[in-house]
Specification:
Blueprint lengths: L14 H10 L8 E3 L17 H6 L16 H4 L10 E3 H8 L15 H7 L2 H5 L3 E3 L2 E3 L2 H17 L3 H18 L10 H6 L4 H15 L1 H8 L1 H10 L8 H27 L10 H9 L4 H27 L2
Antiparallel strand pairs: 1-2, 3-4
This protein binds zinc ion (ZN).
The site of zinc ion has 6 residues, from α8.
Length: 321
Amino acid sequence: MILSFSTLIFPWSGHSVYTFLVMEHSEVDLDFFVKIRPRDFEEERVYNQRGKLKEYLLEDISGLTGTRLIDDELVNKYGFLNNSSVDGQLPAWQIVSLYSSFPDIGIDHLKDVSWIQDTFLGDSQALRHSKIKVRPIEVFEGDQSFLYFAKKSSELLKVGNEYWGLRYLGYALHYLEDLMQPYHTRPGTVWELVRYPFDKNIRILLQNAHAAYDDIMTYLILYDGDRLESIISNAKPIYFSSYEQLIKEAYMYSHSEFFKVHDMIKSLFGDALYSSALSMEDFAKLAQQGKLDNLINETYKIISTMSSVIKGFVTMQLDNH
Ligand SMILES: [Zn+2]
């Protein structure tokens, strides 16, 4: 029996806008212009380069339409994050924010990367954006993806390659943000996972629960923007002694939040999780009835912690150069 979690993994939505809000409310100064340059260094990391991706990986793609670096629902208010460059330059804050969505563009859809992937996943998008822990198994390499880009970004900034240093900082933030979505650290309870291979309903339930929670960030940006911004703004930077310690703590924290969030999602959405995917309007309706408060408060706790971790990380990353 091949156990596959691959259908469970969706993106935590709203990366670029969330990253932008954290940058805006942090101490780091990203208010300067950076000259764009094509990628001119070699890399050991393997990417999916099919179709346009090959070009996207080497060139700046700000201003291009159809890349979906900003969620459709958020384009109205935050479309400026995808403004075209002017005179071959982009503001530093835009590079970091826009490119924090880039890893979901398809570059991690690979085959034959590792035996874990071949056995459990069949596709590496899930592998590279998660770290699943169900005692005693600990697999997937979202943490390795973070470490790779955090270190690469630091090296590039050190040698004065500002554009790629900031762009890879954005990539690193993507994986850090993904790992702080509790469903990226654990797909279900032990009981649900035992039944998972045999029970279609459980598969649908876990898929929809994960997808519903992925959408909550976009929901908050759209419907509760002021409070979200004040939570982000009040988050104090947290500093870690190494990238390894940072990502481990971030992931352990997110994993510890899983059961609380999962219970709330299930009791909130109930049988609806067995049928269709939930929409933003479903969230809004529940919020109007006052039923979303607990889940939102718990989510703000996670967002506050995540914003603190990001502020500390970005400050260290940029101060060292
Ligand atoms: Zn992702």
